[in-house]
Amino acid sequence: MLDLPNCPKCNSEYTYEDGSLFVCPECGHEWTLEIETDVNEDIKIFKDANGNVLQDGDSITVIKDLKVKGSSLVVKIGTKVKNIRLVDGDHDIDCNIDGFGAMKLKSEFVKKI
């Protein structure tokens, strides 16, 4: 029987191997033995609606009409936004949208171009 490591996140002993990854069925944590460090736990990964990883400077497209709070304006579906900045908080993306100015968007309503 293989001697698999316990989950580094919840310390569960019921881990299993999936290709080159180890997976914990209790908390869903996935890791590899070579690169697992405590630093990886502190880095937040931002993903778009399709699951693509977003980074500072990416270009995105809005996938849903979004009402602008405090205004009667609407950011239309298909609006392209360049050079985004990722921030922590409720709204993950800081950006400038032509015709609207500075905006904060949620990553779940955009897709990476």
SSE order, one letter for each helix or strand: EEEHEEEEEEEE
Mean pLDDT: 88
Strand line-up of the largest beta sheet? 1-2-3
Cα-atom radius of gyration: 19 Å
Number of helices: 1
Uncertain segments: none
Main sheet properties: 3 strands, antiparallel
Structural class estimated from helices and strands: mainly beta
* DSSP strand count: 11
Estimate the strand proportion: 25-35%
Q: Quote the distance from N terminus to C terminus.
A: 46 Å
Q: Any idea what the shape is? A: elongated
Helix content class: under 10%
Topology of helices and strands:
Layout (H helix, E strand, L loop, with lengths): L15 E3 L2 E3 L6 E2 L7 H4 L17 E3 L3 E2 L6 E2 L4 E2 L3 E2 L6 E5 L3 E5 L4 E3 L1
Structural account:
The protein is mostly beta strands and 113 residues long. The protein is 4% helix and 28% strand. It is built from one helix and eleven strands; from the N terminus they run E-E-E-H-E-E-E-E-E-E-E-E. The strands form four sheets. Strands 1-2-3 form a three-stranded antiparallel β-sheet, with no helix packed on it. It has a three-stranded antiparallel β-sheet with strand order 7-4-11, with no helix packed on it. Strands 8-9-10 form a three-stranded antiparallel β-sheet, with no helix packed on it. The model has no long low-confidence stretch (mean pLDDT 88).
